[in-house]
Amino acid sequence: AQYYNTAASIGHHELGRIDEATEYYEQALEHSPLYAKAFDGAVSSLTNKAEWQKLEGVYRNQIARVHGTAT
Asked: Which pLDDT tens digits describe the chain residue by residue (71 residues)?
């Protein structure tokens, strides 16, 4: 999860590739659902880009992950 988060952080903060960063944040969360840095990064990147529908999806996926019902 840490490697995915690192890749996401680089994509987000250094390269400005928000869509790619979000995918990596999501992968980090798939491996470690309680990894707060990955969730915070996804929320931050999508909020900064005003991607509200994608942000909603991130929240829904995280709720499902935490409850152990992710598909």
From this structure: 999 999 999 999 999 999 999 999 999 999 999 999 999 999 999 999 999 999 999 999 999 999 885 45
Q: In terms of C-beta density within 10 A (0-12 exposed, 13-18 middle, 19 or more buried), how is residue 29 classed?
A: buried
Distances (CA, A) of 38 to 14, 29, 71: 16, 6, 19
> Which residues, other chains included, contact 7 with Cβ-Cβ below 8 Å and sequence gap of 6+?
24
- C-alpha–C-alpha distance, residues 23 and 19, integer Å: 6
